[in-house]
Amino acid sequence: MNNVMIGLEVHVQLNKLKSKLFCGCSTDYQDEEPNTHTCPVCLGLPGALPVVNRKAVECGIKVALALNCEVLEQTLFYRKNYFYPDLPKGFQISQYDFPLAVNGKMSIETDRGEKIIRINRVHMEEDPARMIHEGGIQYSRHSLIDYNRSGMALLEIVTEPDLKSPKEARRFLDKLRSILEYLDVFNGDLEGAMRVDSNISLAGGDRAEVKNISSHKGVEKALSYEATRQKNLLRRNIKIIQETRHYDEERGITISMRTKEGEEDYRYFPEPDLPPMSVKSWTERLKDEIPELPDAKIRRFVEEYGVKENHARSLTSDIEIADYFETVCKSSICTIPRQKVVRRAREIDPNMAASWIVDVLKGELNYREMKIEGSPLTEDKTIKILKDLSSGKITEKNAVEIIREILDNGGDPEEIARRRGFGRLDRSETEILVKKVIEENPKVVEDYHKKKKRALNFLVGKVMALSKGKSAPKDVNELLEKYLCED
Amino acid sequence: MMDEENLKQIARLAKIELKEEEVKEFSPQIRSILALFDEIDEVETEDVKPTFHVFGLKNVFREDAASPSLAGEDAIKNAPKKERGYIKGPKIM
Ligand SMILES: [Zn+2]
């Protein structure tokens, strides 16, 4: 890539709150009928008075602190004036000068090691309504508007143009999402929870703004398309104009939005209905509520459990998985962050647990679009499977089969192993088979004593066949030699 | 300064349609209002803190608790066009 510069504006819904930013309407509207979670405030009816949700500000400060930002002494809401059907008041309550916090940074993992991405600012604003264009935005003739989303608390997180590739942009968003979920302010699985606008430019061109990237997975595709488009223009010596482009997720392309007559002018002014806020003094208290974040957890997993760094990274990218790993590994009863009681488990090697969770379990969950939280494979079942695996009671292949069956149908690992005939035979069970094989093959035993090497292999094969492969090869060899020598 | 082009731009942003004779009529009126602000600009404010809010209030919050919303049909009652519980609006790109 020739000098791509990408900056992101990430809109994050504080969807773990119970109520919206300025009114008491419930945030629980995901599966509800349109326009059933509204009130005079979020419908913008005349005379309605917004009042700030204290917890929304607290969540915003926690995010700001986690992104190493400086919380401003005084912070203010402004009116951003423009007309759009998703904005019932004719303005959006947002922030302008005096945002909640500024000057942060977050590190991401790149192909060339760790890299710092500067955060310009974190500010609060209200979410506009959701607009539906039936048949796609290009073909529909009108819009249908659902104000249930109107007034949801949003954080806008703005980066400096420090991202050098679409891939880095995706890494940034993945990391941001995991931090937000660690802070317990955000559920990224809900529709529209994270929406991204971005600026992208190549050396020698003006920057284009790509709007409406509605999933963190879409970011890499949208930006790759746009980078390629700009590169092709530059190659043909066509000047890239500064413009806003809309990402069409279905077709995977960006479309130029009609250039507006005259420059956009939002005529910001301080929101007269909302008094200024002075909340910097809350930071000390809120700092104490911030849990161990992904970077610190990676370091601790490497030090405390001795797992490989790439495993630690993968385990910690999802807090549920990180907690799951710790529960499986802890060999004594204690509590870990998020107040889960850790059960007793012994004989589990953390490296083995890490590798099974990262290399097997995460893939099986992804394949089924399942989350570990609430899945039938509870920690105690994984502990049992890994114990049986390390003691040689079951094979690796058996363990994978058991994990798959529990994820699909639930059940108990021991019962599944028994029902499906998994597992190794005890040495005493193998011993019975060995005696039987020696008894039934006197001719081969004779050959063995004549030092014919193939005779032993034949007997081993017979025992394994009888046990359906469930005898431990070590047991078979040792026992055969023992009884053949006694002959 | 407020020339006729500025006025038309402001009217456009505010979605107000002005006839050409109205532009001619309002331009000098708005100019005279702006002249008043020029006078205010002359006041020495070097040592005065900017005022963002006139009541001197700060930190007014509500707790994060959900309260009942309007019934769906009431919420969209005043909308001129609706469809299946949605408010129907123009398409804007
Ligand atoms: Zn409301």
Our estimate of the beta-strand percent of chain A is: 15-25%
* N-to-C SSE string of chain B, H for helix and E for strand: HHEHEE
CATH architecture of the domain at 1-60 in chain B: Orthogonal Bundle
Flag low-confidence runs of chain A. 332-346
CATH class of the domain at 1-60 in chain B: Mainly Alpha
- Terminal CA distance of chain A: 75 Å
Largest interface: A-B, 56 and 36 residues
How much helicity do the residues of chain A have? Answer: 25-40%
Q: Write down the CATH topology of the domain at 1-60 in chain B.
A: Histone, subunit A
Secondary structure tally, helices of chain B: 3
Q: How many structurally independent domains of chain A?
A: 3
Mean pLDDT of chain B: 90
Quote the distance from N terminus to C terminus of chain B.
Answer: 32 Å
Can you characterise this structure?
The complex is a heterodimer of chains A (487) and B (93). With 487 residues, chain A is of the alpha+beta class. Chain A folds into three domains: 4-287, no CATH class; 297-419, no CATH class; 427-486, Orthogonal Bundle (Arc Repressor Mutant, subunit A), CATH 1.10.10.410. Helix content of chain A is 38%, strand content 19%. Chain A contains 15 helices and 17 strands. A nine-stranded mixed beta sheet of chain A has the order 3-6-7-10-1-11-12-13-14. In chain A, helix 3 links the parallel strand 12 (208-213) and strand 13. Chain B is α+β, with helices and mostly antiparallel strands and 93 residues long. Chain B has a domain at 1-60: Orthogonal Bundle (Histone, subunit A). Chain B is 39% helix and 10% strand. Chain B contains three helices and three strands. Strand 9 (142-146) of chain A pairs antiparallel with strand 3 (86-90) of chain B. The complex binds zinc ion. The site of zinc ion has 8 residues of chain A, from loops. The site of zinc ion (ZN) has 8 residues of chain A, from loops.
